[in-house]
């Protein structure tokens, strides 16, 4: 399954819907290039850094 989203943008609800459908039908799903959720990884690293410095 290759989800299509205008301009490569998708809401959290839309992304969750893709996951639910993929799970229901046991589908392999690929989000490619312009649809890559890059900013979330910067947030995760920042959160992990804050947790590490809290000790």
UniProtKB/TrEMBL annotation:
Domain of life: Bacteria
Record EC number: 1.7.1.4
Enzyme class, spelled out: oxidoreductase
Region called Disordered, residue ranges: 34-55
Keyword Iron assigned: yes
GO MF term (any one): iron-sulfur cluster binding
UniProt keyword Hydrolase, yes or no: no
Database matches in InterPro entries: NasD-like, Nit/Sulf_reduc_fer-like_dom_sf
Keywords carried by this UniProt record: Heme, Iron, Iron-sulfur, Metal-binding, Oxidoreductase
PANTHER family reported in the protein's UniProt record: NITRITE REDUCTASE (NADH) LARGE SUBUNIT
Name used for this protein in its record: Nitrite reductase [NAD(P)H] large subunit
Organism: Escherichia coli
Gene: nirB_3
């Amino acid at each position: 399954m290759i989800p299509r989203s205008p301009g490569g943008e998708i809401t959290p609800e839309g992304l969750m819907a893709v996951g639910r459908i993929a799970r229901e039908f046991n589908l392999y799903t690929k989000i490619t290039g312009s649809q890559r959720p890059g900013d979330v990884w910067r947030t995760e690293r920042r959160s992990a850094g804050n947790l590490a410095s809290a000790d």
